């Protein structure tokens, strides 16, 4: 029997983190070529142990901020962000290294002003995607909070598009600003950036339809005192009207005080007993798992437990419980108990 068969009122959703990753993938052909070139350069240096050591030595000699580049994984699209940022910060060292290695074709490609400006833009936009991705993770999140994060990011995309379109400086794009100061602004890259923002806004609306406007029940969950009774369904549940219960609830002074002091989850948990008809849908919304973060964190714990040194270890439930539990063990009490047991056994043995 499925969960929906057991509880027809359950609300389901696709993982918000996964949808954000998919919405971030569209890249225009010129930007994609710059991205592919960046990956090719990083792979050339990182794929060889000798090249990696020589590049590290060069970075140390040039007093660079870092002494190595970063790989990315194709599975995790947003991991390209860290790779691009590191490459942009080590660009002079990379150019010098390719010159020493007589890789003229690669050197010419990354020394091109258009490539550098595109690289800077990609590094900045991917850094913002990584920040959004981090904000969507964590324990204790709910679907309303994550919708707010997505809604805010869409608004930022629109703002950044408007600023770049009008030729303004975007303060939160430091790499792009630095390249513009060094190489000068290029109208072609600005046009490509505007097109990229348009594509991203379209994709975010496709993967998050209706994210910029709450449904009446979502508005009720956020703040029942800003919702009118006409917004609620005129239905009966267990012989009682939802609208009538709602009016009783919002006129209750204790409820008002509780809403100001408690979190969404705790407040609606308290309302479940007093006003079950009104609290049913808000609790269903708050009980939704908006992402697979908890599952992925468990997988990470499995990787941490089962290392190369313990590759034959069978990961048991008890091992995982210890790894993911937030309860800190009383180590001193456990040690004292074991010590007392050991002393008792020694005394018994001597007797």
Question: In percent terms, what proportion of residues is strand?
Answer: under 5%
Kindly state the mean pLDDT as a whole number? 83
Q: Secondary-structure element order, as H and E?
A: HHHHHHHHHHHHEEHHHHHHH
Number of strands: 2
Main sheet attributes: strand count, strand direction, barrel closure: 2 strands, antiparallel
Strand order of the largest sheet: 1-2
- Oligomeric state of the chains present here: single chain
How far apart are the termini?
61 Å
- As for the number of domains, it is 3
Q: Output the radius of gyration.
A: 28 Å
Secondary-structure-based class equals mainly alpha
Low-confidence stretches: none
Number of H/I helices:
19
Q: Identify the overall geometry.
A: flat
- What proportion of the residues is helical, as a percent range? 55-70%
Question: What key attributes describe this structure?
Answer:
351 residues; mainly alpha; 3 domains; two-stranded antiparallel sheet; 19 helices; flat
Layout: helices, strands, pairs:
Layout (H helix, E strand, L loop, with lengths): L2 H4 L9 H8 L5 H18 L2 H13 L18 H10 L1 H10 L3 H8 L1 H23 L7 H23 L8 H10 L3 H21 L8 H7 L13 E2 L2 E2 H9 L2 H9 L2 H11 L1 H11 L6 H13 L11 H8 L6 H20 L1
Antiparallel strand pairs: 1-2
Characterise this structure.
The chain is mainly alpha-helical and 351 residues long. The protein has three domains: 16-207, no CATH class; 216-286, no CATH class; 293-350, no CATH class. The chain is 67% helix and 1% strand. It is built from 19 helices and two strands. The chain has helices at 3-6, 16-23, 29-46, 49-61, 80-89, 91-100, 104-111, 113-135, 143-165, 174-183, 187-207, 216-222, 242-250, 253-261, 264-274, 276-286, 293-305, 317-324, 331-350; strands at 236-237, 240-241. Strands 1-2 form a two-stranded antiparallel sheet. Helix 9 (143-165) runs antiparallel to helix 11. The protein is flat and about 75 Å long.
